[in-house]
Amino acid sequence: MISAVEQGLIFALLALGVFLTYRILNVPDLTVDGSFTTGGGTAAIMIFNGLDPYLATVCGFVAGCLAGAVTGLLHTKLKIDALLASILTMIGLYSINLRIMWGPNISLNLRPDPDNPGTSLKITHVFTGLQDAGLLYSWQMVGILSVVVAVAVAALVWFLSTNFGLAIQATGDNPGMALANGVSTDWTKMVTLMLSNGLVGLAGALYVQFNGAADIQMGIGMILVGLASVIVGNAILGTRFMVLATLGTVVGSLLYRLIIFWALTWEFQFGDFTFTTSPGDMKLISAVLVVLALVISHVVSKRGLSLSPWRDRKPPEPDSAPEGVAQEVANA
Amino acid sequence: MLELKGISKTFFPNTVNERRALKDVSLSLPEGDFVTVIGSNGAGKSTLLNIIAGSLPIDSGGGSVVIAGKDVTKLPDYRRASLISRVFQDPQAGTSPHLTIEQNMSLALTRGQHRGLGPGIGKARRDYFRKELTVLGLGLEDRLRTRVGMLSGGQRQALSLLMAAFTHPKILLLDEHTAALDPQRAELVTTLTEKVVGEQGLTALMVTHNMSQALRVGNRLVMMHEGQIILDLDEEQKRYTSVADLMDQFAQVKGQLSDRTLLT
Ligand SMILES: Nc1ncnc2c1ncn2[C@@H]1O[C@H](COP(=O)(O)OP(=O)(O)OP(=O)(O)O)[C@@H](O)[C@H]1O
Ligand SMILES: [Mg+2]
C-alpha cells in the first residue's frame, strides 16, 4: 500500500511530463514509452559504474530531454506529424536504450569490483540510505518523494505563468494566434517536448533506483499511465487553474497506482477454478482504466460535475440579442 | 510606412490547379493611411494581407515588402509580429480560448519581443490592461481572469482589436473583422476600429464587403479584382463617390476585363 503511494509519487513526475504535451501542447506524445527507459537506463548504467547517483539522476533528466528534442526536430524541422514523429522516436529509442544499458537489464544491487577481480561491491544509489535503514517503504520515504513532486509542481506552475510559459500555452491552444503574436511555435514546441520528456526521464531515473533494477521493457505502456493520471486527475480537480490542473495530475497518478494495487488482489472463482490477477495483467488493466477515465471525464465535463471548487460552469455567453428582438421576446 | 512592390502570388504553380491570386501588385501607404479594401470573392484581398503579414511567401521573381523602412520580404510571420498586428474574420482566431483575458493581453503586449522567464502578469500590467479594457465599454475590465473562450464573438472580436492596436503596431491588418458579427456588434467593432486607428494615427488596411462602410471609414479606398488593384481613391475622391459609383466602376472594369479575355 505504501509502496503504491511511493510509486504513485514517482510516476507523478512522468504524469506531469505527459500533462505538458497532452494538455498544454495538445499532442499525445508517445516518445514517453522510450524516454522513460532512456532516462532510467542512463541513470542505471552510470550508477552501476560507480558514478554519483545524484549526477546520474540529473543525467536521466537530460537524456529524457534529448529524446524529446528528437521528436521535436522531426516534427518542427522535418514537418512530420507530431504523433507519428513521437512513434518514430519511441521505436528508434528501443535500440538506443539497449546500447545505453549495454543489454536488456541492469541490476542495481552488486557490481564487480574493478580493483579486486572476483569480488563485488555494493551499489549505492539515492535511496540506499533509506533502504539500509529499512525505510524504503515508509512514510519518511513518502515525505521525501512528496517534496520532490511538490517542487516539480511549483516549478511547472511558475514556468507556465512566465512570458515564455504563456507563449507555450498559446501555442497549444491557438497556434495561429501565437504566430500572429510573434511566438516561434517551433521553438515553444521544442522546449515543451524536451521538458516533458526530461520529467519522464527523471521519473525513469528515480524508478530504477526505487526498483533496484532497470529493464529494457519498463517503458512500455508508460504513455497510458501518464494519460490515465492526467485525465482522471483533471476530471477530479478541473483545469480552471494551473495549480489545480497540475495537482490533479499528481492525484491522478496516486489513484492510478492504488487502483492497480487493488486490482492485483482480485480473485475470481469459476467453479473449481480460481482466477487471480497477476502483474502481467497490468497492461490490460491500464488500458481499461484509460478508457474508463476518458468516459468518466467526458460525463463529468458534460454534466459540469467536478470536485474542483473552481470550474468553468457557464457556457459562452451569447451576444445580447439586438434590441428589437429582445423587445419582441419581452412582449410575447 | 508600407511599400509593396511587384507582388505576385501563385497557388499550385505549374499544375492544372494553378491559381494566380495576385498579379504584380504594388501599393504604397504613407504613415497614418487608413485604407479600406473592397473586391469580389477571390479577388485576392486576404492573400494580400497574408503576404504583408508573412503568413504566405511571395512568388520568387523580385517583389518586395518593406515596412517602416525595413525589408521583411524573407521574414516569416512570427518575426514580423513586432511590426504588424492582425484581426481575423473569425472571432476565434485572434485570441487563445483557454487563456484568460489578462493572459491573452499579456501575449499581445509582448508581441514580437523576446519572451523570457519574467512574470507574464504583474500588478502594473494588470492595471494597464484594466485601463485599456475600460475603453471598450463592455465591462471586460472587471473580468480579467475570465477565460476568453467564455466570451461572446463580439466581445472576443473587440478584445482582439484592442490587443492588436494597443501596442502601436506599424501596420494594422483587418480582414473582414466584423463579418461574423450581428449588425449591432459589427457597428460597435467598426466604431472601435475608427476610434483606435484615429486616436493612435495607425497605418491600417481594412478588408470589407460593405461598400458604404468602405466609403465611410478611413481616408483611402482600394478596389481589387482578379489579383489586381483596379481602383485607388484618395480621401477627396472618396468623399464624392457613392456606392452606386463604385458598383458602376466595378461593372465597367469587369466588362473591360472580360472583353479583353474574350479578345485574347
Ligand atoms: N491557401 C490557398 N491555397 C490555394 N488557393 C488559395 C489559397 N488562398 C487563396 N487561394 C485562392 O486565391 C484566390 C484569392 O483568394 P483570397 O482569399 O485572397 O480572396 P479574397 O479577396 O479574400 O476573397 P473573399 O472575399 O472571399 O475573402 C482565390 O481564387 C482563392 O481560391
Ligand atoms: Mg478573404
Q: How many strands, what sense, and barrel or not for the largest sheet of chain A?
A: 2 strands, antiparallel
Spatial arrangement of strands, main beta sheet of chain A: 1-4
Radius of gyration of chain B: 19 Å
Query: Total domains of chain A, how many?
Result: 1
CATH architecture of chain A: Orthogonal Bundle
CATH topology-level fold name of chain A: ABC transporter involved in vitamin B12 uptake, BtuC
CATH class of chain B: Alpha Beta
| Secondary structure category of chain B | alpha/beta
**CATH class (first level) name of chain A:** Mainly Alpha
Sketch the topology of chain B as an H/E string, one letter per element: EEEHEEHEHHHEHEHEEHH
Structural class of chain A: mainly alpha
Unreliable stretches covering 5 or more consecutive residues of chain A: 309-316, 320-332
How far apart, in Å, are the first and last alpha carbons of chain B?
38 Å
Judging from the principal axes of the Cα atoms, what is the shape of chain B?
globular
Mean pLDDT of chain B: 90
Give the total of domains of chain B. Answer: 1
